[in-house]
Design a protein that fits this description.
The complex is a heterodimer of chains A (about 1000) and B (about 500). With about 1000 residues, chain A is mainly beta. Chain A is built from 12 helices and 47 strands. Chain A has a domain of about 80 residues: Carboxypeptidase-like, regulatory domain (Immunoglobulin-like). Chain B has about 500 residues and is mostly helical. Chain B has a domain of about 180 residues: Serine Threonine Protein Phosphatase 5, Tetratricopeptide repeat (Alpha Horseshoe). In chain B, about 45% of the residues lie in helices and about 5% in strands. In chain B, the strands form 5 sheets. A two-stranded antiparallel sheet of chain B has the order 2-6. In chain B, strands 3-11 form a two-stranded antiparallel ribbon. A two-stranded antiparallel ribbon of chain B has the order 4-5. In chain B, helix 4 packs antiparallel against helix 5 and helix 5 packs antiparallel against helix 8. Chain B starts with 13 loop residues before the first strand and ends in an 11-residue tail after the last helix. The model of chain B has no long low-confidence stretch (mean pLDDT about 95). Classes of the chains: A mainly beta (about 1000), B mainly alpha (about 500). At the A-B interface, strand 25, strand 26 and strand 30 of A face strand 1, helix 1, helix 4, helix 6 and strand 4 of B. Strand 30 of chain A pairs antiparallel with strand 1 of chain B.
């Protein structure tokens, strides 16, 4: 029987003797651990005969036996054996060297400097194989795609695991609270999450307290957001000129020239403050934090605010029993601007109409051209969403003997979302507009309120055996998990609610107009998991996992899925034949195979349900409720299954100055849940049936290289880069039809086709060959049979390719024209430290994808405005343009004209910081103080002529820019201080 | 965990197993499909919305597209016969009608196994088959050959492989479906007075079957069936033609079958968009709150077709005041439409007008579902069908008698026509005016074999042998893997 003692100490950097913050201190063979504080001190409870492992990225790990000492100071050498650090893997931790799957760790410190809402957004460009697509809209969560798009219809979101709680959204997590983000990329790493692993797993570990002196940290920044990369629309004169030609009627420009985007966009203010207190005793440690974030969007009336608090606490009762919890509460307050309508209207609205006059009356675009006034769209609508979220977990750990740990973990995620949408009453008369008329009006005010509550609990029970015999090290994990998700939602609606904001409650409305609705959802999962890690002599590594998942979302005959994986690693640098070389400090080859699943489909997907309330009023009066079966369901739905093979090489060379990793992966997803279109005659109301039909393959290569150099003792630098090549292809529809999607409306019912041999959601449009220059051109454009192909075309119209040669242009002439799936994406991270100054630049980009200019395509009235470039570059008989059509009334068919390169490279972030010297901070009783200036999205190089080529959407319709939030730029200054 | 932990029933949605009243509710759901009116080729489809209006009225010489010239060009394509297989409104029709037929097939499947009294069950089946027949009748009139779908597909695989779902059946096959459905309805439905208001009844089935035979030129059957309706004594012409389309005229003595309207969930419920799409639209000078989008405007050709003194003209057409004296147009409910410079179009469809004056007609504020019944079959049509059949069968006296019933109510003198040919022309012309803007004119012209002649005379770009039918939507052809064939000329 050995006693548990409290060990404290300092961890310093060997070369400089400076305290090292953020070093992981772990009791070997357990999950017990802590991190050093800002000054490099730590406190940990450990058995008097335990071994402590000190590890941190960029330093050689050390193992130190406690040997009854209560104070242990350690100096870590600045060597880049990064693979010795301890990393989080599913349901446990592992030495990085022992990991046989593809995972990547990003330190919270690297993420927190960016003035963005979520850690996911800050991840952009930081990790190979991880594509982050962010809309920039306040309060929004970016899309995470790990190693390509491996599904078409089931959820594409990566799984987030926050302190053991499984979730899809981390917009409630204050980035300042995060210690590490670990991304599990390949199937052998994610197979332990079974049916939820196919899209990759992002594990978020939040900070925990360390026993010892209380530390207080403040970090904050504040600054401005500006619209970036705006499209310049034609002014009144250019517009009048264009539209006169297009319509054949003279349109004259008056003194008014309205810049509609200028009217609805602004400079927004953003700020982020976080305060944390941590510390503890040998029996308990704590980490408490509070955060406040506001992001005033660049669209008028748009603002998002988040207040968050966190309490993480750990208790050591004795050497056998430990317990603790993590709890966070976040309140998000999102004042949403009526974007979808306002944005399109701003694009189309004529600049010759005033937005608003001095008396506050609106210009009437509706009466002029059947387009709403976008300022009014926003101002006459008030849309507020408030979510309150509690996310946390509690654990109890029992370690009866040194080689056995039992851990039970109960996690919960409770969300209460309230929405309130108020539409003001206004008429299309002179009380509202400068000129009366048109159809933009709302004769009765109305209020909709909604409440959605979700609760998701997870309950894990895990047993870990750990035994080292000679050169054999074996860890075995077995466990079971259960989870349940429930959702209830209610909505209520009434008209004639007074305009005063204090009366925006359902009860003040006209009861004769009240309607309400409500629904629910519930699903459960039950899983059994196991993992074996075997290490022989620190040279040969083997990992094998097996998870069995049962999900209520599938019919009973297909309910259980089995997800195995196996990985092997070879630490070549530990072989004797490598001891004589001096290039590689570490060289590791690893390969893995695994099978994972995806069950992210609605709970009712296989059950035929009855649509209620399709009423009919026989003989008038109040109608009799009726119902209909309007959906065909597949009674044999099953899991999506992804099998992935991964081969990787990791190295550290030149005394740790150069590190890197190369990975090849081949990922095949089959039985993909996909909406197969059925002919309308089948009677499915939305024309699609969810079934397991398609297969998609993603193959790719990831390269990561990091160089750390030192020019002098005062000047150090690092250059890191990562690049991912990915090839996405639908390899089989297996009887399903190609999926046509991406409709813009009017003449463009669909713009994409997901088909064999093409990337998911490939654009499928008419090929523009040029512009007809004159009537002779039109008449001479014939097919081999001599038919004039576009007889009704006029000079200035597009000449489309008659692909099938049948003498007419129709849907059969469409061709594939690329997709939104990038061929490659990359990140570049530079850092420079000179004395107390630090400077960093992050670059992100992607190449080889296409975007669809949906805004241009959406132009549908002859009086709609055009982009300035279109006004000037349009075809005229004088300039003979072959790429821009003549002045036209819009309503063009889907064609290559609307497809543009989506490649871009962007300086995501540049930060300049200054850390006050220790003697100064000591004087003001601070442990550290750093001030910094940071800028987000400073410069974007792109070919795309629209607002943004970063587009969030479903796989089969992604890459269409119609209502996207414009890119924003942020300039902020900030402060980090520790007490 | 216990095994039952994973047995989670669907929340918040009834399933076929949990709805005890399933069959009866599904029948009501079939009636509800009469309301479908999706504007832009959306998933819901269109049965009696703008697509229907376009493919029946706008396409004919009775109406123009209306609205502003640049508004909804695909509707203009239907008007000018430049319609293509990608036309979204045509696609909406295909989707809508097959959506309705599917609801009928679902209801029929549920009725087969429902525990209901045999009479009740057969009556419900008869009502559903009546509506299914009506939908197929419109489909053949729009598209000619169409797929014969009389059962519910089991799953997507079934829907995508059974040739019945992927190929068009011959027209005769579809007419057989219609005949059998309607014969069942005739045999099992009670007379109008014995059935609840708004439900399909025996007379409705007989009238619709007669109308189908009209298109088949089976004059004997037309005469027999219309005679049965007439002899049933259930129907009569109402004295005042103008009242028929008003709220007060709903389900009156002349009504044989019409869509119903009322309220549900504190809102108006009726055919989606029917009144809004056709409502008078504000014009350049503005100054008033308009009533709709201004589509489907009566043509000058129709306006000119009325004889002097024809009372039906003012009940069919809202004529905008273009005198320049600022008189405006006063409607029956007291609503005054300002004069021409504030109004987009010269004429509007009065038969699609529903009042927003709550003192005159009920209106809870849902403009897209104003409480307007669309009259789909009425007694005047039966009389004219009978007259046409009688004339074709050489019974001119009978023909003249029924024709004059119609003319008398319209305030017109008896017909002067006596020869079979003159009488035929007179009956055709009477059909046009009596049923103007009631969604039959174009089909009549096609069936009478003079669509090309009349359309060309009206200045339209009609191609004989092609434009009698609409194109099969290209998306549907693609979804069938090309097995669905296209109509001639598209």
């Amino acid at each position: 029987q050995t006693a548990t003692i409290r060990v404290t100490g300092n961890v310093t950097e060997k070369s400089t003797n400076a305290g090292l913050p953020g070093v992981t201190v772990q009791v070997k063979g357990t999950t017990l651990g802590t991190t050093t504080d800002g000054a490099g001190t730590y406190t940990i409870q450990a058995a008097s005969d335990a071994i402590l492992i000190f590890s941190s990225i960029g330093y050689t790990s050390q193992e130190v036996a406690v040997g009854n000492r209560t104070s242990i100071d350690v100096a870590l050498a600045d060597d880049n054996k990064t693979l010795n650090e301890v990393v989080v893997v599913g349901y446990g931790t592992q030495r990085r060297a022992d990991v046989t799957g593809a995972t990547v760790t990003i330190k919270g410190d690297e993420l927190v400097k960016q003035p963005v809402l979520t850690a996911t957004q800050a991840l952009q460009g930081k990790a190979a194989g991880v594509q982050i697509i962010s809309s920039g809209q306040p309060g929004s969560s970016p899309v995470v795609r790990v190693r390509g798009t491996g599904t078409a219809l089931a959820g594409t979101a990566a799984l987030f695991v926050v302190d053991g709680v499984l979730t899809d959204d981390i917009s409630n997590i204050n980035t300042a609270d995060i210690t590490n983000v670990d991304v599990l990329k390949d199937a052998s790493a994610t197979a332990i999450y079974g049916a939820r692993g196919a899209n990759g797993v992002v594990i978020i570990t939040t900070k925990r307290g360390a026993s010892g002196k209380m530390t207080v940290n403040y970090s904050g920044n504040a600054g401005f957001r500006l619209p970036a990369n705006l499209v310049t629309m034609a002014n009144a004169t250019e517009y009048a000129n264009y539209v006169s030609t297009a319509s054949g009627n003279l349109v004259t420009a008056g003194p008014t020239s309205t810049d509609w985007y200028g009217q609805i966009l602004r400079t927004g203010f953003q700020q982020n403050h976080g305060l944390s207190i941590s510390g503890g005793t040998d029996k308990s440690t704590y980490f408490l934090s509070a955060g406040y974030f506001t992001d005033q969007g660049i669209v008028i009336d748009n603002i998002y605010k988040r207040f968050s608090i966190r309490a993480n606490q750990d208790f050591t009762f004795n050497k056998v029993v430990r317990a603790g919890f993590s709890a966070s509460y976040a309140n998000g307050n999102n004042q949403i601007a009526n974007l979808n309508t306002a944005y399109n209207n701003a694009y189309r609205a004529a600049p010759i109409i005033a937005s608003k006059d001095a008396n506050g009356k609106y210009g009437n675009t509706s009466v002029y051209q059947n387009v709403g006034n976008s300022v009014l769209d926003i101002e006459k609508n008030n849309n507020l969403a408030i979510d309150n979220r509690l996310l946390g977990s509690a654990y109890l750990e029992i370690k009866p003997v040194s080689w056995l740990t039992y851990r039970t973990n109960l996690g919960g995620d409770f969300v209460n979302l309230n929405s309130r949408v108020y539409n003001y009453q206004f008429n299309n008369d002179t009380t509202t507009f400068i000129t009366p008329g048109g159809n933009q009006r709302n004769p009765n005010s109305n209020l909709s309120v909604g409440n959605t509550k979700t609760f998701h609990w997870t309950f894990d029970n895990l047993l870990t055996f750990n035994k080292q015999i000679d050169k054999h090290s074996l860890t075995v994990l077995v466990g079971t998990t259960a989870e349940q998700y429930t959702l209830t939602s209610v909505t209520a609606f009434r008209k004639d609610v007074p305009a005063a904001q204090n009366l925006w409650y359902i009860g003040t409305g006209n009861a004769n107009t009240s309607t309400n609705d409500g629904t629910g959802d519930k699903y459960t999962r039950n899983s059994y998991l196991s993992r074996i890690n075997y290490n022989y002599n620190d040279k040969y590594l083997l990992t094998a996992t097996l998870r069995a998942d049962g999900s209520s979302r599938f019919p009973s005959q297909n309910r259980w899925g089995y997800f195995p994986s196996v990985g092997a690693g070879w630490l070549i640098s530990n072989e004797s034949f490598m001891q004589s070389q001096h290039i590689f400090d570490l060289l590791k080859l690893r390969g893995s195979w695994g099978r994972v699943g995806n069950d992210r489909i609605p709970s009712d997907s296989y059950t035929v349900t009855v649509q209620p309330n399709l009423a009919y009023p026989f003989g008038g009066g109040v109608a009799t409720p009726g119902s209909a079966i309007t959906q065909i369901k597949d009674p044999n739905l099953k899991w999506e299954t992804t099998e992935e093979f991964d081969l990787g090489l990791e190295f550290s060379a030149l005394k740790g100055r150069l590190t890197g990793e190369v990975n090849y992966y081949d990922k095949k997803a089959r039985d993909l849940l996909i909406n197969v279109k059925v002919p309308s005659v089948a009677g499915d109301a939305d024309g699609v049936v969810l079934t397991n039909a398609a297969s998609i393959r993603n193959q790719g290569l990831e390269v990561t290289l990091n160089w750390r150099g030192r020019i002098s003792n005062d000047l150090t630098y690092r250059i890191g880069g990562n690049a991912t090549l990915n090839s996405n292809s639908v390899i089989g529809l297996n009887g399903g039809q190609p999926i046509l999607d991406g409709g813009i409306g009017a003449n463009q019912q669909y713009t994409t086709r997901t088909d064999n041999g093409q990337p998911v959601g490939s654009f499928y449009v008419l090929q523009v060959l040029g512009v007809f220059q004159n009537d002779a051109d039109v008449n001479s454009y014939k097919n081999p049979a001599g038919q004039v192909i576009q007889p009704s075309a006029a000079p200035g119209d597009f000449k489309y390719q008659d692909t099938n040669g049948d003498g007419k242009i129709d849907d059969n002439d469409r061709v594939f024209a690329g997709s939104y799936q990038p061929k490659a994406y990359f990140g570049l991270n530079l850092g420079l430290t000179y004395k107390s100054l630090d400077f960093s630049v992050d670059v992100y980009g992607n190449v080889g994808n296409q975007v669809y200019n949906g805004k241009r395509a959406f132009r549908q009235n002859v009086l709609d405005n055009v982009e300035k470039t279109m006004a000037y570059n349009r075809w005229t008989s004088a300039n003979g343009s072959q790429t821009e059509p003549g002045a036209n009334s819009g309503n063009l068919p889907a064609s290559t004209y609307f497809i543009e390169s989506g490649s871009f490279a962007r300086i995501n972030n540049a930060t300049l910081g200054y850390k006050l010297p220790q003697r100064l901070t000591d004087k003001i009783h601070l442990s550290n103080l750093r001030v910094f200036a940071t800028a987000q999205n400073i410069l974007t190089l792109k070919k795309y002529s629209g607002f943004t080529s970063e587009l969030v959407g479903n796989p089969t319709s992604q890459g269409i820019e119609l209502n996207a939030y414009p890119t924003t730029q942020t300039f902020a200054i900030g402060l980090n201080a520790g007490f | 965990c216990q095994k039952s932990f994973l047995d989670v029933p669907v929340q918040g949605q009834a399933t076929t197993a949990t709805d005890p009243n399933l069959a009866v509710n599904l029948v009501t759901g079939v009636y509800n499909s009469l309301f479908n009116g999706e504007a832009f080729g959306g998933a819901g489809g269109d049965i009696h919305g703008i697509s229907f209006i376009a493919a029946t009225n706008i396409i004919s010489d009775d109406a123009e597209k209306g609205s502003t010239p640049g508004d909804q060009p695909p509707l203009g394509d239907i008007d000018n016969f430049s319609v293509t297989p990608t036309n979204n409104f045509v696609a909406a029709l295909w989707n809508g009608y097959y959506g309705g037929i599917s609801r009928a097939n679902q209801a029929l499947a549920a009725l087969q196994i429902a525990s209901l009294a045999p009479t009740t069950k057969n009556q419900l089946i008869g009502e559903v088959r009546f509506i299914r027949a009506y939908y197929y009748f419109n489909l053949v009139r729009f598209f000619g050959k169409v797929p014969k779908v009389v059962r519910v597909p089991n799953d997507a695989q079934d829907a995508n492989t059974d040739p019945a779902f992927q190929t068009r059946a011959p027209i005769d096959t579809i007419y057989n479906v219609i005949t059998q459905d309607l014969q069942f309805a005739i045999d099992n439905l009670p007379l109008r007075t014995q059935s609840a208001v708004g439900h399909a009844n025996k007379g409705a089935a007989q009238a619709l079957l007669a109308k189908m035979y009209l298109y088949r030129k089976n004059w004997q059957q037309v005469q027999t069936l219309t005679q049965a309706v007439i002899a049933s004594g259930q129907y009569s012409l109402v004295p005042d033609y103008s009242i028929i389309w008003r709220y007060a005229g709903a389900n009156n003595a002349e009504s044989i079958f019409e869509t119903q309207s009322g309220t549900f969930n504190n809102s108006d419920i009726a055919t989606a968009g029917y009144c809004t799409w056709q409502g008078p639209r504000v014009g350049p000078k503005g100054g008033w709150t308009d009533l709709g989008f201004g589509f489907d405007t009566p043509s000058q050709d129709l306006v000119n077709a009325y004889e002097p003194g024809d009372k039906r003209k003012a009940s069919t057409i809202i004529a905008i005041d273009r005198t320049g004296r600022g008189l405006g147009t006063l409607l029956y409910d007291g609503f005054r439409i300002p004069s021409g410079d504030s109004v987009q179009n010269a004429y509007y469809n009065y038969k699609a007008y529903a009042s927003e004056n709550k003192n005159v007609e009920p209106f809870l504020g849902n403009r897209d579902q104003k409480q307007k019944n669309i009259r789909l079959l009425r007694y005047a049509d039966v009389l004219l069908m009978n007259a046409e059949a009688a004339n074709e069968l050489g019974q001119s006296a009978a023909a003249i008698a029924y024709l004059n019933q119609i003319r008398t109510r319209a305030g017109l003198a008896a017909t002067k026509a006596t020869s079979q040919t003159d009488l035929r022309t007179a009956i055709w012309n009477e059909r046009r005016l009596e049923l103007a803007m009631e969604h039959d004119r174009f089909f009549d012209l096609v069936r009478q074999g003079r669509a090309a002649q009349v359309m060309k005379a009206a200045g339209k770009n009609f191609v004989a042998g092609k434009n009698e039918l609409l194109p099969v939507p290209s998306l549907q052809i693609q979804l069938s893997g090309g097995k669905l064939d296209q109509n001639n000329g598209y």
